[in-house]
């Protein structure tokens, strides 16, 4: 596992798992899945710019907890491509708000619903 070399990055995106390895994986995924899946369900073509984790990985929280099992589970969720979906920024923002509103509950976000105007 990559340790953060630059300690000034503590608690930043890279500490939460958004490393250069993720940046590469994300780009490759967006190349393969260039369209927002939530908009696509509505028959709309919108370019995706975000790789969203369908189930929140909570990697940062797992790291903070020091619980090896929780960390392993979070890592698995983070890197599991079947847990990824391509979204546009707008759909991602809507999903994030919904998740924050339902903090602690593992609800499956209806992304198509999130996209309806
Ligand atoms: Zn969208």
Characterise the protein shown here.
It is a single chain. Helix content is 46%, strand content 7%. The chain is mainly α. It has one domain. It has a two-stranded antiparallel ribbon. Helix 3 runs antiparallel to helix 4. The termini are far apart. Mean pLDDT is 82; it is low at 103-117. Zinc ion (ZN) binds at residues 36, 38-39, 46, 87-88, 90-91, 115.
Compose a concise summary of this entry.
The chain is mainly alpha-helical. Helix content is 46%, strand content 7%. The protein has a two-stranded antiparallel sheet with strand order 1-2.
Let me know the average pLDDT: 82
The string of secondary-structure elements, in order, is HHEHHEHH
- The coarse overall form would be globular
Number of helices: 6
The molecules bound to the chains, other than polymers, are: zinc ion
Number of domains: 1
By secondary-structure content and strand pairing, the structural class works out as mainly alpha
Please give the largest β-sheet: 2 strands, antiparallel
Spatial order of the strands forming the largest sheet = 1-2
Count all strands and give the number.
Answer: 2
> Radius of gyration in whole Å, from Cα?
15 Å
Could you name the ranges where pLDDT drops below 50 across 5 or more consecutive residues?
A: 103-117
The proportion of residues in beta strands is 5-15%
Residues in helices, as a percent range: 40-55%
- Alpha-carbon distance between the two ends: 42 Å
